[in-house]
Amino acid sequence: MPETQKQQSGGAETPRLIAEPSEIFDAVAVAEAVQEAIKATSDPAEHRAAVVEVLRAAQVQGRDLIAHRFALSPFDARGMTSAYTYLTDGMVNTALVASLQLTAASTQDKPDRLSVIGVGGYGRGEMAPFSDVDLLFLTPKTITPWAESVIESMLYMLWDLKLKVGHASRTIRDCVKLGSEDYTIQTTLLEHRHIVGDAALAKQLGTALNKDLFSGSGRDFIEAKLDERDARHLKQDQRYVVEPNVKEGKGGLRDLQSLFWIAKYIHKVKNSADLVGKGVFRPDEYKTFLDAENFLWAVRGHLHLLTRRATEQLTFDMQVQVAEAMGYFDKDGRRGVELFMQAYFRHATEVGDLTRIFLTKLEAMHAKPEPLLERFFRRRPKIREGYEVVHNRISIIDDADFLSNKLNLLRLFEEALRTGMLIHPDAMRTVKANLKLIDDDMRNNPEAQRIFLDLLLKHGNPERALRRMNELGVLGAFIPEFEPIVAMMQFNMYHSYTVDEHIIQCVGHLARIEKDEMEEDQPVVSTILKEGVNRRVLFVALLLHDIGKGRPEDHSILGAKIVRKVAPRLGLKQDEVDTAEWLVRYHLLMSDMAQKRDIADPRTVRDFAKAVQTVKRLDLLTVLTVCDICGVGPNTWNNWKAVLIRALYRQTRRALETGLEDLNRENRGTEAKKGLRAALGDWPKKDLKIETARHYPPYWQGLHVTAHVAFAELLRGISNEDVRIDLHPDQDRDATRACFVMADHPGIFSRLAGALALVGANVVDARSYTTKDGFVTDAFWIQDADGNAYEAARLPRLRKMIAKTLRGEVIARDALKSRDKVKKREKAFRVPTHITFDNDGSEIYTIIEVDTRDRPGLLYDLARTLADSNVYVANAVIATYGAQVVDTFYVKDMFGLKYYAEGKQRTLEKRLRQAITEGVARADV
């Protein structure tokens, strides 16, 4: 056996294994078994297979033991990684010894010197359950037939054991030459470790590498590693994305490894503990390094074991399983997986802080002097007393003097925004180490309140200040109520960021809109801001709007209570506090009204206007709503939402300014008919009169004139046998409008929903009307799988498939069974079903709201259930939030009445729940 490996990135020279070495791999027993297996057969061709069988048994036993012990000690990452390395060392060692013996028996070639070197992660002594085994076969000169035979025999054994082996056969000269040409090879050689074979040859390699490859300043190597890091982060997006890559993502293991590679190159350290002695890390920072490293390796280990392969992405379904494996359980109204992911993101943030600290030290060592002319002509903002510029970053001249006034902990961020400069990481370290100075006395200091509000309102880039303050712990210290949501994950497919990052993204969107950077995308909100709003109220409300998340109580109600405490502490006056509290309490109202209700129904606008009461509140709520939606994720805000929000805003503003009495069906119907006559100016008056007389009032107030024109064309000259379809891409709404006209009969709405489900269309809105002469006019707005309108080239096939279903050639209920599947990664989400009946939200309809887990065919199942229950569906509004969907139906009974009777409501709810349950059972198969 080789000497026990040294964990080079950990603190201990000889790490503790998770079990006794002989339990993991009994080298003596395995060697004896190998010899007995070889002796048991005289056929040389069977010798290798016999060796592999012995090793496979030892491998299974060792892996099972490590996995069992790791399950009992789920955070013992160092013991786990060292144990897998020890097990691999044993197999590599045994495979070489056996290969030497088998080669000697089968060839007369003269033996040569050969050393087996572990490189990369294996060389470092850190292995997850399914990590690659990277080997360097080192020979003193060009490889001989004997060495080639030994290596080939050994590799076949390891491959037969299903190990993923990366290998190279080189001389010492090759290693130096190739390492100087390729930084990837140079990095793997940086962590080489002798496993078995000629030890003297391995020692010669180390001497040559130190002399000829690792003896320079390391500038090119550092730049290469940092370029790799930047490219990796760009590919992986950012730290706060809710399905992070444990290995390659920002704040992941590769960042820690890159940090250590550079440190090893520059400082010639053998393990990370040496970085404290070199002055790179303080003892507390080194502890943070070890904690983050241990946590991330533990996560990676469990991820490999659960998936039984080298998986690095923490997908939603795996987050639940890893959280359970590591002992995170539901607590205080939060799921165990959310607690686990909050810990993950906090460690990832710490990794980012450590990286900044380390790179600053490197920068100081390797910075090139700025050219004299550039220094002469560059005009820098004048730095205030107590600060200096170090490598183009603001730094603190005297820590003691800086800390003598605790307000400086906020002034530093103000100075950075004022000058547009970054904060030096040494200054960040000083701030982070002294957060205890931020106490109630400071929080209630008027000057501190002024500085904080100025960071939000005055310097044009509050997002940068808030993100840095948050990462350093200043935001949570100054607003203690904010601290619980730091790195808090929202376990759903709707939000792309943690709660704190979502809030910071929202504030950033608001700042960009204020600077006219989004006027084309946000014309209404841009106009509102230009006309003037109370920015203090708006920014504070946006900063605090989700501060109540993560607790059993409704986060809007709890958030409003928190605002009443926090807003005065931030310097808001009482009337501003009242408005901010109202905004947080109702920050979801406009979004819900726009996306879950029919805004063409006058009652919707009237109820919303009564809730808002003033144009001032409407303006503030509209801006907050738009920023809130934009901050959910990169593609959450779209044209469909924009049309809904803008329409609700304009109608509500008009109602508040001219009076609610203007909101009635007669006014809307008169205007709509007038618009249709203008659009069909070439029609004969007789035909126009027939068209305007054949529809009931809801039709006129529920559709835009463009839809009225489409239906008029479809209805013109129609017979009872006709089924007419018009598909029109509505680019302004990111949807395709599908209009259907046919003779009316029960269940048409559900059949249309089924037809659309079969072609893979996502319905975002639907309206159904009957004419006085017995035809149904149904309009559906649909999107493709990417949330866009269908391309024109796809419409003919779409039309053909829909018509085929409507003619009964395909039965949607049967055809959907094979497609009704929920993706594996989505099964982890708990989306309880809530069904409510509202008889006040509409003048003539009962509103049934079904809040449940989304899946293919859901709308069809619900619509079919309603049809089978003799429920007339006038229109449906569909709001999707990741894995959750809210389907809202405006309905009447078969007599044209609302569903007032509780008994009827309970019966209908039971049937809808049964349809959902049966659909989930199909989808989870």
Give a verbal description of the structure.
The chain is an alpha+beta fold. The chain folds into five domains: about 20-210, Beta Polymerase, domain 2; about 220-365, Up-down Bundle (Four Helix Bundle (Hemerythrin (Met), subunit A)), CATH 1.20.120; about 480-660; about 665-810, ACT domain (Alpha-Beta Plaits), CATH 3.30.70; about 820-925, 2-Layer Sandwich (Alpha-Beta Plaits). It is about 55% helix and about 10% strand. It contains 41 helices and 15 strands. The strands form three sheets. Strands 8-9-11-10-14-15-13-12 form an eight-stranded antiparallel beta sheet, sandwiched between helices. The radius of gyration is 34 Å and the shape is globular. The relative contact order is 0.05.
What attributes characterize this protein structure?
single chain, 925 residues, alpha+beta, Beta Polymerase, domain 2, Four Helix Bundle (Hemerythrin (Met), subunit A), 8-stranded antiparallel beta sheet, 41 helices, disordered N terminus
Number of helices: 41
Structural class determined from secondary elements: alpha+beta
Strand sequence of the main sheet, in spatial order?
8-9-11-10-14-15-13-12
Give the radius of gyration.
Answer: 34 Å
